[in-house]
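Working notes for the structural subgroup meeting. M.R. asked for a predicted model of this chain before we commit to crystallization trials. I am recording the input and output together here so anyone reviewing the notebook later can reproduce the run.

Input as submitted:
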Amino acid sequence: MTRPGDPTTPGDPSPPNTSPTARPLSRVTLSGPDLGTVDLEFEGEAARNGADAGKDAGKHAAPPAAPQDTGPDFDPRLYEAALPRPDPLSAEAFLPVLDPAQFAALLDDLRGELSLVPDEATRAALNSRARLLHLNVEGYRVNHEQARSALTRVLAETGVGVRGSWERQQEHLTFMNAASGGVERDYEAATAAIEQARARRFEALVGVGARPDTTGAEDLYTQQAVMTLAREGHAIRPPEQKSGSKRVFNGFAVFSKFFVGIISGVSINLLFNPESRLYLTLIALTAGVMFSVLLLWLVDELAYRAKLAPVTPGMAPARAYTAGIVAVTALYLGVEGFLNWDGILRVTAEIAANAAQQGQLTDLNALPETDTAPPHWSLLTFTLALVGMAAGAALVQGRERARAVLERERLAARVAQLKAQGTLADAARATDHVTYLERARDRLAPPRDVTSPDHARLNERVLHHWEQERDSQVQAISSRLLAEAQHLQATLEDFAGQVQAARFPPPRRGLRALLR
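Returned structure, recorded in token form:
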């Protein structure tokens, strides 16, 4: 058989060239209505069949194409994992005994030797024994046939169950193989689609001037909105990272509310609890902390609303919130100043009284009249400065919170405007299409048969039942027949010994030979 494209001469009986030199193959094409014709084109030659032959038909007649060696069709089922198929069982495989014909042949040989027995009485007795043994052999033949029939019936009955169990297991395995193969093909197709979608996404993102690493439509719209706002002069600051200084400032702003509250609580305790009772001290400290936190939260909220008022409809004018900030701050400073002023007076008086009791001051009346105001202005100024710093920190926090809200709203408004224009719809669709395909591929999973463990255990129990039933019945039948065969064989061996003893009696010596 020659390959397509090998030069052949019609009528030349010489065999084809089988030299080990191989010509380089330049092209392989498929032709025909079912693409079943393979055209091999070697370097320096044209195709001998297919479409090329049709093109050259007008120039010269092409030689007939040699028959091609078409192998058998590819059957994927031959390459699937399969369970071993047990061979059919026969009754003879479970009969560990000799055939009745062999016992009959042995008995016939022994009966043929009876004519050589010289003693007539012994020969007659052996003939009678031979007839009885013939009946035993015939009975063994009948029992052998019955045992073979019974074994055939048992193997047939149990074989149905065994084959059914194997077939169910094979069907389950075939189903799982087919399902896994289908999922694998779907996964490969989805991967190819994802790669194509990624290529289209790259082209679309480069076309609109976005970063090639953009992975979502929302990210794309956000980038474009930030770019347009920057071109218009409304730069959007990105969310601030929590730097060390920012963390320190936030910590100070929170700590200042409670610290100045503790100072207020101490002042209230000095004013209303001269005897320093424990429960009054706790009440005073709690009231001071609550007063401080509440007023500083009001400063934060008023600063937030003052920042949002110009661009938010339905809110009061910004000057009203500014006046509220000034009023709350003045109230806070006034209350703290009064509490600390009164506390300084009380502490100074207590110090003087304690000194007089200890004899450090001999005569208070002999001292010149002095101003009752204490000279501790530095303590009062420091306390008011702390309160002012806490109020300023609350004001800065409120304005920063409002600024972040305004920038988010401005960015969201520009994103909505870009979505309404629709100029980025194709790029956004191409960007999100990759994510959609990846999620669809992630959902691909072989159909898990939730009954697979139960199915396997059930098949195993059924198979074990049928095999145990077959073994028990086969063992019972074989043991009975084996015992009968052994008994018959022992009887024939004994009969053979009697025949040999009758044919060749032991020689008599001495007086026995004379009395013979």
